[in-house]
Amino acid sequence: MSEEQHVVKPPADRSEGGKRQADGNGNWGDDGHVEKRLKASTNEQEERRFPKRKVVLLMAYSGKGYYGMQRNVGSTQFKTIEDELVMALVKSGCIPENHGAEMKKMSFQRCARTDKGVSAAGQIVSLKLWLIDDILDKINSHLPSQIRVLGLKRVTAGFNSKNKCDARTYAYMLPTTAFAPKELDHEDGSYRLDKETLLKVNRLFSCYKGTHNFHNYTSQKGPRDPSARRYIMDMVCEEPFLRQGMEFAVIKVKGQSFMMHQIRKMIGLVIAVVKGYASESIQQRSWGEEKVDIPKAPGLGLVLEKVHFEKYNKRFGDDGVHEPLVWDQEEEQITAFKEEHIYPTIVETEQDEKSMLSWMKTLDIHDFEATASEPQGSRDLTQDDDEDGNGSD
């Protein structure tokens, strides 16, 4: 029986005291069954025009003015990157409007939950959506210029951008005056990082490589909590460069995963050592069970640079159906976005608000030599404060 016949034909058997017979217009009266079926049929036909598939979206955004990546459904006071993305997906016709408030129905998952003001050049989200024509152009037409979707790729049905990610690379852009000796702090931007100091900075950063207990670099983690052990693959400060008469440098760190505030505290401690507020021995001491006071560098300058899916690519990247999750073809767009929206925002905000200089003035209130034993269990170990997916740096 065709769909049209099924809709028009009234039921053969109506209950006693039942509803009125069809009046010739396919309306069975007060129960509204035909209207509902016609409406459902129209929606189904519309949905069948485009296939619904599991995909990943490559996103870049400047986090200034937003309260992080992850949305808070029902809250309009604190706008997030995901609020903008979901609205654009609905308006462009990629997802049903009634699923916008409950993205779990679209199997939505972010790779990393960046915090307030933090930017990204290579954020990945996975979800099911309708593959409409000119999909990227239509999504971007409903996004502000500081948020872009730069790429889309099909993935396996069970793909989860958080769980399938092998590693994340973050960048942290800061004025090099952060590494000046404390007696030589320059507010006029005239400081220049010398090679000897850069070598010391990178020697200290290299000590983070490998697996360490980072319970002192986050909150809500006890010293014997297994989840506080994290593996760092690489960390380096690149050559400095000038922007608007001020010298900056970019720190790159790659790790399997990071906890809330971990990267900013890793950088904050090295700054404190290089400037002469703390001895180098504090780094080794911070991985022990004692509580160590570690300063947290400002959030401005932190950028989610890239996420890595090596295991997934090895298994599915060349299966003839799915593409490897690498973005070489989009690299030019990524670089252009950073140059237009991310780096200028960091430079201008630093020059206007002087967040790094203000933070450096607080370093002398930290007691870097004092330690305090903290019994296991004195912290709430049930809180998930991972940066990647359920928390943020």
From TrEMBL:
Lineage top rank: taxon: Eukaryota
Biased composition (Acidic residues): 383-393
Catalytic residues in the record: 115
Annotated region described as Disordered, given as residue ranges: 1-47, 369-393
Organism of origin: Albula goreensis
InterPro entries noted in UniProt: PsdUridine_synth_cat_dom_sf, PsdUridine_synth_TruA, PsdUridine_synth_TruA_a/b_dom, PsdUridine_synth_TruA_C, PUS1/PUS2-like, TruA/RsuA/RluB/E/F_N
GO cellular component terms listed in the entry, alphabetical order: nucleus
GO biological process entries: mRNA processing; mRNA pseudouridine synthesis; tRNA pseudouridine synthesis
Family stated for the protein in its record: Belongs to the tRNA pseudouridine synthase TruA family.
EC number(s) recorded for this UniProt protein: 5.4.99.12
Quaternary structure, from the entry: Monomer. Forms a complex with RARG and the SRA1 RNA in the nucleus.
Subcellular location: Nucleus
Residues that, per the record, bind substrate: 170
Swiss-Prot/TrEMBL keywords: Isomerase, mRNA processing, Nucleus, tRNA processing
Function: Pseudouridylate synthase that catalyzes pseudouridylation of tRNAs and mRNAs. Acts on positions 27/28 in the anticodon stem and also positions 34 and 36 in the anticodon of an intron containing tRNA. Also catalyzes pseudouridylation of mRNAs: mediates pseudouridylation of mRNAs with the consensus sequence 5'-UGUAG-3'. Acts as a regulator of pre-mRNA splicing by mediating pseudouridylation of pre-mRNAs at locations associated with alternatively spliced regions. Pseudouridylation of pre-mRNAs near splice sites directly regulates mRNA splicing and mRNA 3'-end processing.
Residue ranges, compositional bias (Basic and acidic residues): 1-22
Name assigned to this protein: Pseudouridylate synthase 1 homolog
GO molecular function, one term: tRNA pseudouridine(38-40) synthase activity
